[in-house]
Amino acid sequence: MSLPAPHPIYTLRGAGGALNTLHFRCHGEDPHLLFSGSGKGSIHIWNLNSRRAEKVVEAHSGSSVTWVSTLQSTDTLISQGRDMQVCLWDLNEGRSELLESVWTGSVGFCQCSLLETSPTNYLLAFAAQQTEEIKIIELPSKNPVCTLTPKAKVGMVMCIKLWKTNSGLGPLLLAGYEDGSLLLWDVTQRAKLSQVRAHPEPVMCLTFDPRRLRGISGSSEKKLSSWTLDSQNNIQLQDDVTLVNPGVSQLCIREDGRILASAGWDDRVRIFSWKTLRPLAVLQYHTDMVLSVAFSDHQDPRQRLLAAGSKDQRISLWSIYNDGAGKG
Amino acid sequence: MSPTMSQINDPKVAFAYLRPACVLLTKEPTVANVETLGEQLKEIHDASLQQLQEYVLFPLRFVLKVPQLKKEKLVQAVAEALSYVLEKTCVQSWDTLHDLFSELCLCLCSPTDPGKPADLSEELKSALLRCLDALLHAAYGDIVFKLYEPIMLPGLGAAVSLLLALGEKEKSREVQAAALRCLQSLILHCDCTQEHVIPSSDERCSVGSTMASFLPGIAMAVSRIITGNLRQGHAVTVRAIKVWCGSVGLVMEDAQLQSSKACETPSQELGRIGQLVVQRAPEWVKSTAGKLSVLLKKIISCTSAHRHWRVRLEMVELADHLLVACSQSLRECVGLLLEALVGAVNDEEPKVRERCEAALREISQRSQSCSRSSDGTSQILADVLSENLHSLATSLPRLMRTSNDQKKLFVLKVFLGYFKVLGPLVSVVLNSAAHLERISKALMQVLELDVVDVRIVEERSHGESLERSSGSVGSYAAHIPQKHFLYFTDEKIFSVLMEICRTLGFYGNIYLLTDHFLDLYRQSLVYRKQAAMVLNEMVRGAAGLAMATGAQCLDSGVQGPSASQEDLKVAAVSIMEEYTSLTNWNLITTCEETDGDRQDQQLLSPSRLLSISISDTTAIATNSLQLIPSSSAPPPPSMTTSTVHQLNSNIWQLCIQLEGLACLAQALGRDFRPLLMTSLYPVLEKAGEETLLVNQAALNSMMCISQACGYSSLKELINDNSDYLLNDISLNLQRLSQHPQAPRVLTVMLAHSDSSLLPLIRDVVQDVLMALDLSYNHSAALFCSVLHALMKALARWFPVSRCRTGGSARSKTSTDDFNCRQFLLDYQKQKDLAEGVGIEVDDTEDLEVPPASEGEDAEDICGPDEKSELPSHLIITKEVAERCVHLLSDPRLQLRLKVLEVLELCVYVLSERENELLPMAHRCWPVLRQRLTADDPLAVLRAFRVLCTLGEACGDFLRRRVSKEVLPRLTSSLTRQAPVSAKAGPVYTHTLAYKLQLAVLQGLGSLCQRLDLGEADLDAVCEACLPYLSCRQPVRLQEACLSVFQHLIQVDPDTFWFTLNELHCPCSYTPPHPDLPPIQLSGMGRPRDEYSDNVLKLLREEFGLCDGSVC
């Protein structure tokens, strides 16, 4: 820890609201973009070259945007708002037209999870009208795939993560619930594979590394809890990480699987080694709760950035642990 | 009289007409007879004259032949007549030509030595020379070449040496020129407008062979003429150059030398004459060329910097001619000639330039066509050029040290010319490391700056300059002092050097050059400034800015710079990164140890204080700000011994780098906009610098950048990029120890932008305040200047509309239409009110008018909303004011002063909202009172200004506090000081006490009026001020005191009318009714005393003086 504390390489301001969600899109030749969803209902599209908002989409008629993402294949933006809508936007050629919208009925804060099964088809998992219910639909056809409701009483769905296994099994879904439980669902079987109580408090966020079959979840307490999936798809609790201050809004693993970032309620972003979960750095810039973190998907590992969005209406961009990023 | 009309066209008639005169002339050779013949000749038509030529010539030649007749006048008349005939006719017979030629030569030469000119009058000489010239022109093509046969060598030689002697020694310019013109005709290089015989190649060759015998003589003598007397006039020099050029070109012509005839051995018949014939064998050519090159060098050095452009033009002609005709035979001169041409490429005279460009173009085309046919002549040319360039670069530093400015200028022009001629080949030449090294080192040495000027380090900018510039952005142009160079002073030299750099950039490989010069930049402190200068211009050149079109270059096909916009961008980024890196940007430009002292002095200096007390907007913005050396930047090697030179050098380096950023912007144009992300902040940082030069350079740079990027003004530049700036500011505020300049940047930004910035500013102000809160001790001073700038900006952006003019309006109406009855009625009413009569009635009325419920509702609905929707500038102001309250009791006097200024601005801005202002006034009152009553006089002064502003804004809110806590002290101090100042001498006006008096007097009046003070207080004020009405007081105190009374009179005219009249009453008043007692005022009938003048003035201005019948 002899190195001086890092500083953000840049900060983006002018979002005009708390930044609930961030999403990079840096592949391809286009100007590299960062999408942010604000508490005031606008989605800012930041050009990372000029470091300015290229466009602002007023997406959810003023209600907070909780999640944004883009599709790999097309210029489509997906956003979820607290107006209980998930909207698809066409961003081709500088447009921002509403393509579709899906009514979720969820009043919670649970962010959707997206899984692209093929260039034209993708699955979207979201919390549904019933507090414990998760719905998965296929897009763009909007065909419902399944509805997953736990039998046990676990409270509201807090966070979900949909991914595809290598082992030939269908897509799996991890979900964190209000009582601190983590459930693993098999989407095709519509069956619960495993359940574990990771936290005494509600699970605020979770992230999962499908290559290592290892995940981590955060809560409103001082602990991050990591776990793995064994060959029987059972969730095995592993080490805990104790934080200085309680509360984590989001967790994010860099694509190369080397570091993990946490968005803390204590205004700080913490960086951990994903392998050992050793704390590496504390990024201090924001003056209010950090609500979201995201790593860029830039092709050149050296140019991968970390973005943190905070309640103080600023986004900070950091360039950290990029030098020896050879493993990819 | 028009001769052509009446000319005789019939040969017979002509003969008859001329005959008597000819006969007479033969018999009696007199001047008159010759002139008669001459007159008659003019009436003969040319064709007839041709037929009669021999006949007419005879008597004339006869005169010349008879020796005893040789009188000067006669000979001259004959020569003129002969010239006329020869100009009109042709000589067809060899004998005539030969005889005439030798006769004329004989006339010219002295009888004893045929090679020397005779001692004749100038008129005669020029007549004879004209005649000779006419003869040579008149000779027919088939006979003229007989003149050059070997047999003629002795005669011809005599003529040549005669002409040379005339050309060289003669005093008269005309004769000189005429002799040289004859020589020109003789060497077939005449440039007159007449028709000339065009020799065949054989003929030319034989002429060449003959003239080869005289070449040494001609070349030597003519070069003496050329390099000789500078005052001989350009015409002679031009002619001489022509002769030189013609003779050398004739004899050394490649075409002749290559043919076999050149070295034919002379036939045996010639006998001894045969020895005179020169065989132009290769050895002879070589040795001759060697000798010629020596002469050529002399000639070029003498003429290429000649003052008259015609001479330089002729030089170009010579070089061109010889390069065309003799490039093989004169191989060793090619370099010299090219150098001469190249040097003339940048001539001031466009004609010379054009000719030179044409010549060079021709050369390059020729060499290119050669290179296409055979191998590598162009390569040879390029080689010669690059070789010349190398040697010139090697000797350049020495030349720059030793020679005079004119010579330097020429050398540099040659240097530049090489680049221009090489054109795109420059990049090839520069690929040679030796060349690049030489050239760059030469530039480094030549461009060395002189850094001894102390003023540069001393000069400081004040905040005002910043303000001023923001006011009139368009017309603003900062004055940038000249750079002083060690090795030259001429501005022209500098501009040529800069053009050299631009040309380098234009043709060279931008990557290579950028790399190389950046290397030099990093290599050593010694080269840093020069390398930066070169880089700046190079980039401009690479963008094709300020470049003449590339017409001169060898390869005329290529137009436009070699570097693409993309290359340029890459180069620009690397240069910019280097310039703005911490080590190269955060240079120390002030001596720390003296900084604080100086600021104190500045603060205490009378002029500044005066300005503070006069206008409320003047303020010290940047100069009381402490320069904190950046701790992250490695300290320069000898921090402790950082001498003035080093500081000076640092300042210049910064200036050059700032200019550099502007150059980069100019080069990239709108493409520079993305680079503003990283470059604007550093520039603004320097714009906040207190060293005048750096400050100005930064402002200039900003102007350039905003223009280059297509912004209409500085304001637009800053507003459009405020997000980039604020980002850096906010980040750097968090690491203030490394980036102490962050607040300064904000200051500059605020000074140059407008209220549209506010939403973003608000964000950063939070950062500023937080940073301030975290470091009250260390950087409070720094932050205070930011807060000051901020409040000043807010005050500018949101000017407060003063609607509190009720007081004066009321007093106006009461004085205008004074009605005695109404006054008494009002008085009665007031008195009743004071005693409590009728209060209830009034109260109920008041309550009834605004229904209470409505008022409540309004409060309920919009009350809380309004509170949250307070405009952000007011929120900021409130926050700042809060800090001010804390900082007002800081132990540092300077800081307190600064804070008082900020507070004043806060009050001004807040005065728009009384609801916000009054609580703030309440909060800051205790500390302010401390400043007013128990502080350094300086602080009292400033605090009083704040009080005045507060009084202006909150009116009677402060009445009680002021009258209780402050006023007694002020009045007592005024009273105490009055006798002192009345007795004091002129030096007193420089003391602090005086300034305090002045400030209090200046502010007191309006304060009293605003606060609506009670009678007792007014009396106290009046009493304290009265002594200052004395004419013994300093004038400005009197004026200030008058202003106090003017205000007081507005508050209560009657009282003060009375008071004044008590003091001095100029006129008597008669009561309107005899029943009333007579008016007795104690000032009546008093003699004039020290107060009378001012009292009278007041009475006159405020009351219209003795408007005797008041009632």
Automatic annotation (TrEMBL), chain A:
WD repeats lie at residues 196-237, 283-320. It comes from Nothobranchius furzeri (Turquoise killifish). This is G protein subunit beta 1 like. The keyword Cell membrane does not apply. Keywords: Repeat, WD repeat. PANTHER family: GUANINE NUCLEOTIDE-BINDING PROTEIN SUBUNIT BETA-LIKE PROTEIN 1, TRANSDUCIN BETA-LIKE 3. Pfam families: WD40. The gene is GNB1L.
From TrEMBL, chain B:
Pfam families: TPR_TTI1_2nd (PF24176), TPR_TTI1_C (PF24181), TPR_TTI1_N (PF24173), TTI1 (PF21547). Residues 15-348 form the TTI1 N-terminal TPR domain. It is found in: Cytoplasm. GO terms for cellular component: cytoplasm. Keywords: Cytoplasm, Phosphoprotein, Ubl conjugation. Coiled coil: none annotated. SUPFAM superfamilies: ARM repeat. Its main location: cytoplasm. Residues 786-1057 form the TTI1 C-terminal TPR domain. Belongs to the tti1 family. Regulator of the DNA damage response (DDR). Part of the TTT complex that is required to stabilize protein levels of the phosphatidylinositol 3-kinase-related protein kinase (PIKK) family proteins. The TTT complex is involved in the cellular resistance to DNA damage stresses, like ionizing radiation (IR), ultraviolet (UV) and mitomycin C (MMC). Together with the TTT complex and HSP90 may participate in the proper folding of newly synthesized PIKKs. This is TELO2-interacting protein 1 homolog. It comes from Nothobranchius furzeri. The lineage of its organism: Eukaryota, Metazoa, Chordata, Craniata, Vertebrata. The gene is TTI1.
